[in-house]
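hiii, so i know i said id send this last week but things got crazy w the move. better late than never?? heres the sequnce for the chain we talked about at the cafe, plus the structure i predicted for it. fair warning i was half asleep when i ran it
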Amino acid sequence: MQLPVNYMTNEINTDKKKCGSKGKAMFAYGIIQLGSSVVSALALVAIALSFCSIKKEAKVFNECVEEMKANGRNSSNAVRFCNGGK
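okay and structure toks below
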């Protein structure tokens, strides 16, 4: 038995219609995935920059404690003073 020539053409056209909606869904998924990667990268940059400021603040605090200890205060009083205590 021989199938009509247009039988395969109809089957191919049907498959293309089914793949069209999948293609749109995959495209949307790709865009969402890319967007979430960009947001993650920006969050990591923000965290890295905050670590730099924390490092600078710690350096200033340590210098303050060393200066207070050099002026004759004990360690606990120097730390209290540098934290804003009296």
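btw The helical segments are 5-70, 75-82. thought thatd interest u
miss u guys!!
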